[in-house]
Fold:
Amino acid sequence: AEGYDFRAIQERWLPVWDELKPFEVEGLGTGRPRKYVLDMFPYPSGDLHMGHAEAFCFGDVLARYWRGRGYDVLHPIGWDSFGLPAENAAIKRGVDPREWTYANIAQQKASFRLYAPSFDWSRVLHTSDPEYYRWNQWLFLKMYEKGLAYRKASWVNWDPVDQTVLANEQVLADGTSERSGALVVKKKLTQWYFRITDYADRLLDDLDRLEGAWPAKVLNMQRNWIGRSRGAEVEFEIEGREEKVPVFTTRPDTLFGATFMVVAPDSDLAAELASGASPEVRMQFQDYLAQTQKQTEIERQSTEREKTGMFLDHFAVNPVNGERIPVWASDYVLADYGHGAIMAVPAHDQRDLDFALKFELPVRVVVDVRDEDGAALPDPAESGVATSGDGALVNSGELDGLPKAEAIAKAIELLETRGTGRATTTYRLRDWLISRQRYWGTPIPILHGEDGEMKPVDPASLPVELPASEGLDLKPKGSSPLGAATEWATVEDPETGRTWTRDPDTMDTFVDSSWYYLRFLSANDDTQAFDPELVNAWGPIDQYAGGVEHAILHLLYSRFITKVLHDLGYLDFDEPFTALLNQGMVLQDGAKMSKSKGNLVEFASELSAHGADALRVTLAFAGPPEDDIDWADVSVQGSAKFLARAWRIADDIEHGGAPVGVSFDGGDTALRRATHHLLADAPGLVEAYKFNVVVARLMEQVNVTRKAIDSGAGIADPAVRESAEAISMILSLFAPYAAEDMWAKLGHEPTVALAEWPAAIPELLVQDEVTMVVQVDGKVRDKITVPASITAEEAEALARASRGMQRAVRDRQIVNVIVRAPKIVSIATKP
Ligand code: ANZ
Structure:
């Protein structure tokens, strides 16, 4: 017989699967229970890479698993094909972004075909197709109609290299652009926003429902990103100004300790106060503002940096005690958090204390914070350390003597009765800036009149198609290239003869990916974005899989849009992803792989050298899927050897095994027990994402099966066939080709991917029992019946508790215990 030849096997089954299309599902499915399994769709930046290989391997294990468990499984694929990288590559190579993008998609499709994830290829979507982005525009118009899409002029993050606006989320902690690496600066522009802040509470509270089903780390990142902060809004009068100024504080209990006020230099209030001051102050303010704008938000919030600021020559009045306090400007107060102004309590807030000490402003202790021994903490003005803990209020009028929590409640009550403040909640989350001044994206379906009037494009005339890139200068310059497409941009109203200009901006591609999972249900429907009946039957996604790099943005935006569509009556559910698996990264020698480091493991070359199965088994076996995989530590050859051993069993059965349909009763009992333990354990292991353990169990099963064949049972034993069938079914999660070939050799029709796993037989799951000997100083003192699978700890505990041993040991001292579970426990003693 010929040996295991992965190339021949791939060539044998690919055309069969192409013909069978086993993973296409129609409409509502066949009436079996449904599972919707989705991998985060790829960005077509070239061929697939090892990261894709890993992510799609894990997603596919789960999709194939649920099919084996008797579910209709929807497992679609598409491409996230708009966005900057395509455009930048196109600019560099002088080709059309369209051509570049679709050529890459074609290459990725070919690689996927060979890698063989169990996709439903009848539902492919590309977000850069007009058939897709038309519905992006539909979504935008829905948001506009509901007041959830709006335009405002504001300071935005500006990437000076890519010459485009970035969302806060795209600015890294060091203040550089996630995309270009350039230092991000601030620029004032009119931009489109989605009002995600309206959903802040729900986005936060509903995370509780995902507890245990999403990685804890991702839940925390989402929580921190939304950043809900409960406190109070306190209104301060500013002398000479009609309107009062609100500040946000989490510590209204410290109001009596507020000794000055600080406003953000880049706030409207600071500009207004400075303009009402002397020419010197005005000049100083211009300089200070310019200096502030050079700082990133991170730098401004840094506790390391020395505080800077200036007196604005104004005074505010503390609403609880009528005290006059000076108003300063400093960059540590941010314009777009809370109200852009704070009451400074230097005794109990470190930033305020640093500022007060630098500019010699008064420090007043209002909370008597003590250490564990009840001793008063050093005076902050002396020690330079603010005290933020709990304690009794002092120097605080009616609040005196109250502990922190009670004082907060009382302070709010005081403010509310006087009408100078109220309880409030603030969020770190900002509205979602969705407009981009770039070509390769979805045009925003809004028309502008000469007088500044805005008009949504008639939904019946969608899509607003992206004009050809020919003749347009795609190079970034701060305004959208589409503005120069005059013919495209100019629209005449046939009825009124009025001329309108198209909005030249395109949408952030996170809009595209915020709802794509819904489009898969209606990928070929040109009458609606998605069919609510289908979406509500299949949705929400039962299992989502993808990289942790999307822990915040993509997931948050998808959650937001899902809630909006729920509120609009389209969706029954309001959370898109019921369970989430984040795979680790594929590394090489402990480092992230990259072309520049020269340590790139090329997916295409691995695939052609070892085949899809060996690659997939290697990825699944490397460790828990959440962990990083170091390619230097794995053995693709080892995986190939295992596959050959598994395949050989089916090959041998083909040439002399028990026939198809044979009753397994009466087969080798030990082997049957192993098979049924595997069938019983595999589901729980897969559902807990312990794919590596399942592969290890398969390896073990292949070994015991071969042993049974060699040591008596023989190839014709029905238990051997039973085991081989179970191996083929479970192996198909990881190695679809080898498993299919085994399945055929076992006499079955393709495809094993749709074969339902047999249930484990309970009688075969009872544990084997053995007799364990207990020895004391070399003499057998007891014999105990124990389960064959007993652990060393359990064996020792049982031995120590046995009567025979206790009689032999009495009051002698145990000096050594040797455990050989399940056979023997041997104890040495001395007087
Ligand atoms: C007085 C006070 C006393 C404060 C005290 C803290 C401790 P989180 O928890 O992050 O919400 N703050 C308010 N608006 C600000 C802004 N735009 N820029 C910088 N800081 C701002 O922080 C809320 C606290 O941060 C607020 O409570 C305010 O300082 C400050 F012992 O008010 B606090």
Q: What stands out?
A: The pocket of ANZ is lined by residues 229, 248-251, 254, 264, 333-334, 337-338, 340, 342-343, 345, 348-349, 388, 426 (CB under 6 Å). The first helix runs from residue 6 to 20. The two ends are 67 Å apart (CA to CA). The chain has a mean pLDDT of 94.
